[in-house]
Amino acid sequence: MPTVFRSRGYRFFFYSNDHLPIHIHVERENKTAKFNVNPTELVQSRGFNAGELRTIRRLVNQHQELIITTWNEYFNN
Question: How far is C-alpha 22 from the geometric centre of its chain's CA atoms?
Fold first, then answer.
């Protein structure tokens, strides 16, 4: 499970056997979410409230280039 980045207590990562479309998993404590990256779209969430999901969406948008670059480097090698 490569970690792409951490911010505000959230860990943003993907699984080594992930699939297209490019997406990112997020966890904090016992909460999880999954967002497609381009366009940024919530796929699923367990435990996060609406405010947390807005924060996570902003972080995904802010780090979109890093997420895509890391995904391509990891899965295309």
Answer: 9
